[in-house]
Model the fold of this input.
Amino acid sequence: FLDTPIDECIRRISGRGNDVELFEHKEFLQKVKENYERIFAELEEGVTLVRIDGLLPKEEIARQIREILFTE
Done:
């Protein structure tokens, strides 16, 4: 799970040139994140969940993903 703050998600989406209603989009993303957190809490036992800081450089994110996939 790439854990990225909502404001950073909005910044990245806006940087793609997508026209978004900032307030509505932020509310939607917050609900999505809350639902993920709820599901993760329910599945905590018996499921491996890996959180990666979405603010890390993309090279570091890729390195961590490779490490998880090929060593666990």
Observations:
- The chain has one domain: 2-71.
